[in-house]
Amino acid sequence: MIALGGNAHIRKPRVLLKPASVLGLSIIIALLIALLVAWSVRQASLNRLETTTQAQLARLVMSLDAALARYSYLPVLIAQETEIKAHLQQAPDALSSSQINHYLARTNQLAGTMDIYLMRADGMTIASSNWDKTWSFIGNDFAFRPYFQQAMSGQLGRYYAVGTTSNERGYYFASAVQDEKQNPLGVVVVKISVNTIEQLWQNQSFEFWVTDDDGIIFMASDYQTLFHTLEALSPLRQQAIIDTQRYVGFALKPLANFKRNFLHDNLYRVERQNQHYLMAKHRMEEAGWDVYVLSDWRSITQTLQIALLITLALTGLSGLLLFTFWKYRTQRQCYQQAAMAELETKVAERTQALEQAQTGLIQAAKMAALGQMSSTINHELNNPLGAIRAYADNARQFLERGQISIAQTNLQEIAALTERMATITHQLKAFARKSHGQRERCSLAMAIDSSLVIMQPRFARAGVELQQERLAEAVTVWADLVWLEQILINLFSNALDAIHERADPQIGLKITSLQDQACMEIWDNGTGLDENDMNHLFEPFFTTKQAGHGLGLGLSISQRLAVDMQGSLQAFNRAEGGAVFCLCLPLAPKE
User: Fold this and answer.
1) Percentage above 90 pLDDT, the chain
2) Residues facing residue 278 across a β-bridge
3) Number of C-alpha atoms within 13 angstroms, CB side, residue 48?
4) What is the distance between the alpha carbons of residues 126 and 117, in angstroms, rounded to a whole number?
5) Do residue 132 and residue 152 come from a single domain?
6) For the whole model, what pTM was predicted?
7) How many domains does the chain have?
8) Is residue 467 within a helix (H) or strand (E), and if so which, with residue range?
9) What crossing angle do the helices spanning 97-111 and 82-89 adopt, rounded to 10°?
10) Residue 19, pLDDT above cutoff 70
11) CA 476, CA 478: separation in Å to the nearest integer?
């Protein structure tokens, strides 16, 4: 620094970095920043891709489960038909083979299945819905199929295979036809089309595979991968597949150029034909399937490339600014060694101005970042806070007026907004879970309240307030809670369908307790039940609704569930008009 006056002197020059050193240090810092950004962006992109892939996998699995569950009851219902049993027993008044064929063909058409056929206990097919086709199953022996063996042992047969006659992919459900002593007389088989299920998930943003226990792809978004294996099959497994004729006419070769590396939690990084994917896997135990979803890995690399380009650009710009600033300071430093104190003061003032400018740039950058995030923050907060803010504003006004009780009511509404969403989500999850008919002590009030949580939106749309007559004391029945909720929802839905054209729609629920049973009567003020329909109301596929508005299985399944729980389901017409369905279940013994 140069002092003013006669005693002015020149300060010793400062040690300055060479340009090469500054450039090397800048490059090292830029590389470190780029590596840190690359790692952070890659992890964020990978986490996002994992979440998206697992969500797509969950949707696909739910769709497959629903597609299979839709038909699992069908062979059981058909196997219980007296005409089917009589035909297998060759009773004197049994229907002819032609009549059974027509019945199976009609049922197959109504249910939308691929084929339905009837087999004797020795595996010979004696009736089929495709009796009039060139590929008819009649006369074919399918005793070698695992689904036949499962059904004959008393289980619900489930099996995927390529048809030996039709050469079409299908999933088979099979149920044994039993006599009065529970001895198997034969087997009813329902075949559903795998191709129909597969087409629902074509043209998605991801690829999918469905494999059997041997890792053989039998459903896929890319048809070129069908009937390929994820790994080479051993000679023993190949022979077992040949014995069951599961894939007649297909070579079952491993996928070409396929590699997979395990990441975590059923997630893999996959390379196939020089392309990389993130693959998620889910096991469908009941069906015996493995479901895979493959998402393009390029979404990670592309995001990473863009982030690196932006980072390098910003780092380069910052480095250029710093280098320019350093060069300017160096030049000024050299000039200060020979300049007067006044000149040094001006340099200091300019340096201070530059520092203030730099501080302003940093603050402006922070504000710009906040501006970019404001739309996202606003979107995430405004939707749930809209209703809460309205209640809060009202509560404040009521407090100012001294109306504390009304203000407390508004605060309770705020709490109810979140509680309501949590209740509905919890109930839908509980209702969706699978049940195997395990009877236990069930609170009747809990089952009714749970079903009403799900049905309330439909009641609100129809403008109906349920009229309830419940008992004062708690009622506990011996039942399966999920089955009981399913029956109640079916009955409430039927009541809503019955009163949709009424000017004064009414639906009611009445609970009574008689001896060792509890009965629930669900009534409506609709048009009531036709006398001619009474005897067929609980038959499978019988419906009074227009075509396309149901298969007619709701009441049939509900009655079957009630009987399986040692209860009953009956229907009557009300004297006041409308219909009433009465569900009775055994009371649970007192603890």
Assistant:
1) 26
2) 269, 295
3) 14
4) 8
5) yes
6) 0.48
7) 3
8) strand 467-469
9) 150
10) no
11) 7
Is 438 among the domain residues? yes
Question: Quick one: tokens of 301?
Answer: 């690399």
* 211: nearest Cα among 267, 281, 265, 274: 281
Query: What is the pLDDT of the chain when averaged over all its residues?
Result: 80
Give the contacts of 286 (CB within 8 A, at least 6 positions apart): 68, 158
List phi, psi (to 5°) of 107. -65, -40
Average pLDDT of the segment spanning 378-395: 55
Q: Is residue 112 part of a domain?
A: yes
Q: Cα torsion at 22, 25, 30, 36 (round to 10°)?
A: -160
- CATH number at 157 reads 3.30.450.20
456 and 571 fall within a common domain: yes
Same domain, 560 and 420: no
Q: How far apart are CA 537 and CA 556, in angstroms?
A: 8
Task: Determine the 3-state secondary structure of 81 from DSSP.
Answer: coil
Which CATH number covers residue 507? 3.30.565.10
Distance (Å, whole) CA 25 – CA 31: 10
**Residue whose pair of structure tokens reads 């349920």 in the numeric block:** 466
* Beta strands 467-469; 275-284: pairing state: unpaired
Q: Show which of 411, 432, 453 is a domain's final residue.
A: 432
DSSP string of 495-527, one letter each residue: HHHHTTT-SS--EEEEEEEETTEEEEEEEE-SS
State the Cα–Cα distance between residues 82 and 86, nearest whole angstrom.
6
pLDDT of residue 6: 43
Note whether 177 and 207 are within 8 A (CB).
Answer: no
What integer is the mean pLDDT of 194-204? 81
Q: Give domain status of residue 393, yes or no.
A: yes
Q: Looking at the structure, tell me whether residues 440 and 580 fall in a common domain.
A: yes
529 within domain boundaries: yes
